[in-house]
Amino acid sequence: PLLCDGRLTCFLFPLLLLLRAPLLFSFGERTCPNSCRCEGKTIHCDSSGFLEVPENISVGCQGLSLRYNELHTLLPYQFAHLGQLLWIYLDHNQISVVDSRAFQGVRRLKELILSSNRIASLHNSTFHGVPNLRSLDLSYNKLEILQPGQFHGLRKLQNLHLRSNGLSNIPIRAFLECRSLEFLDLGYNRIKALTRTTFLGLQRLMELHLEHNQFSRINFFLFPRLANLRSLYLQWNRIRVVNQGLPWTWYTLQKLDLSGNEIQTLDPAVFHCLPNLQVLNLESNKLSNVSQEAVTAWISLTTISLAGNIWDCGVGICPLVAWLRNFRGSKDTTMICSSPKHLQGEKIMEVTRNHGICEENDYFMTETPSPMPELISDATAEPTFASTSCSPTTPPTSTFGPLPPFRLRPIPHPTYPGHMSKDTRNTAIRTRPTLISPPVMEHMALHK
């Protein structure tokens, strides 16, 4: 201290500040673990060979990525000191043990990625401490069962990924509290059957993946509670039969993928109850023909895929051929005859025209193409049930005119190579059919 103007003045104070500055700055800095990259409030510790979660992570961290490491176990309260976390990426590790309290203390967490690990089981309370989750990814693990109440309390969850595990069944009311769920992926598992309560509570679900499982038959009456579903993926199962069960009208479904199954016959009742279906994939099944009743029910399709079936190019193929000639949407141009033997490998549309298998008629639209319609409102539409018929209250307006009857002709043996007619599909005017709105009806509850 020095005297200045008769007062004790701390001239050394600025010097003391300079001496203490490095210490002050070190306290103010956010710590960044070795081998990690820190950007603001996010920390990336990917591909760094970590055997456990680093300890010196800033308490203000909001995003933590530990992808592609060697983590094996998640301990109790593993992230409790990081209460500000909004997302954690733990995929592509060797995690096989997850303590039921591993995620306690991170209630703000919105996204949790645990895919591509070795998790074989999870306690039913594992996710009870993260009620604000929006996205949960458990795909590519070894889960064989889901515990009752596994997703209890996840009322804000919007996306749930369970693809590529070993699940063989789904517990009753497993998703009951996932009332905000919009996307559910159960593909690539071993599920053989569903019940009417499997999807109870999923009123907002828009996309459901059930491909690459072990279903042998599908009854659409399993899905009436999915009143907002837009897309259903059932490809590459072992499905031989698809039926409707108790008739009801599914107004919201717009995309249905049944490719890679063993379907031999199409039930017209199924399609009569899907008045707004736009995309239908039936590739790689065992269809030999499609009935007049079935093609008449395809009133709103804009895209259809039919390749890879065992088409019989006899007179039974004529209803499908007549429908395809009038269809102005996206369609296959590679449909091949599997029988009779002398027509094997020939293109269906070409051979039926050149060899006069079906009546050669010109089909015209009976109405002026309408502009792009408005899609169904996002508001949940109640499924409509009927005692004997699932036809809409207001008859749908088809994009096709009435198909004239065709005259059956015997199949002549080819004497020369058929000449492919010019495909005018690209020059045709494409329009999308008017979607049918559900009628106003009183609420009808469905009980088992």
TrEMBL record:
Entry keyword set: Glycoprotein, Leucine-rich repeat, Repeat, Signal
Signal peptide (residue range): 1-26
Xref: InterPro entries: Leu-rich_rpt (IPR001611), Leu-rich_rpt_typical-subtyp (IPR003591), LRR_dom_sf (IPR032675), LRR_TM_domain-containing (IPR050541)
Family annotation (SUPFAM superfamilies): L domain-like
Key word Repeat present: yes
Region (Disordered): 384-405
GO cellular component: plasma membrane
Keyword field contains Cell division: no
Biased composition (Low complexity): 384-401
Family annotation (Pfam families): LRR_8 (PF13855)
Origin: domain of life: Eukaryota
Protein name: Leucine rich repeat transmembrane neuronal 4 like 1
Source organism (scientific name): Xiphophorus couchianus
